[in-house]
Amino acid sequence: MSRVLFIRRAKGLGFTLKEISELLELRVDPKKSCADVRALARAKMGDVEGKIAALTKIKAGLERLARAWPRIGPDERVPDPRGDRQGGRPCPSLTSCMTKRART
Questions:
Q1: 42-97, pLDDT tens digit by residue?
Q2: What is the DSSP secondary structure assignment for residue 33, as one 8-state letter?
Q3: What is the pLDDT of residue 66?
Q4: Kindly report the CA angle at 101 between 97 and 103, in degrees rounded to 5?
Q5: Contact at 8 Å (CB) between 43 and 25?
Q6: What is the spatial distance between Cα 14 and Cα 22, in angstroms, rounded to a whole number?
Q7: Domain-wise residue ranges, the chain
Q8: Cα–Cα distance, 4 to 71 (Å, whole number)
Q9: Per-residue pLDDT at 103 exceeds 70
Q10: Is 10 or 70 the better-scoring residue by pLDDT?
């Protein structure tokens, strides 16, 4: 396998250039074995699983926000009870989302 192809495939698996450099070094170091490569792959899987968990939390928060959104048209604003003539006030769901700390 050519070096460029190896680098492309490793990038496609999510390895950083630094990690790819480590993988390339493992290929030429006679003291290293497949166990070393497996360890790097498992470490990368742990990183990916952490990212998936974080993205899952983000998705759940966006789903809650979307369900909480008022049932008004996309160009309408929530009427201002004070009679503000500037088109109402921002959506309360959005205001709430932006002012409260995110749940973890």
A1: 999 999 999 999 999 999 988 887 777 666 555 555 555 555 555 555 566 666 66
A2: -
A3: 77
A4: 90
A5: no
A6: 14
A7: 3-70+90-99
A8: 53
A9: no
A10: 10
Residue among 96, 62, 57 nearest 78 (CA):
96
Question: CB atoms < 10 A from the CB of 7, how many?
Answer: 16
10 CA to centre of own chain: 20
Q: Mark 17-43 as b/e (b = at least 16 C-beta within 10 Å).
A: eebbeebeebeeeeeeeeeeeeebeee
Helix (H) or strand (E) holding 50: helix 34-68
Instruction: Tell me the β-bridge partners of 85.
Output: none
DSSP assignment string, 57-103: HHHHHHHHHHHHS-S--TT--BPPTT--SSS-B--HHHHHHHHSPPP
Fold of 3-70+90-99: Multidrug-efflux Transporter Regulator; Chain: A; Domain 2 (1.10.1660)
Which distant-in-sequence residues (6+ apart) come within 8 Å of 77 by Cβ?
87, 88, 89, 90, 91
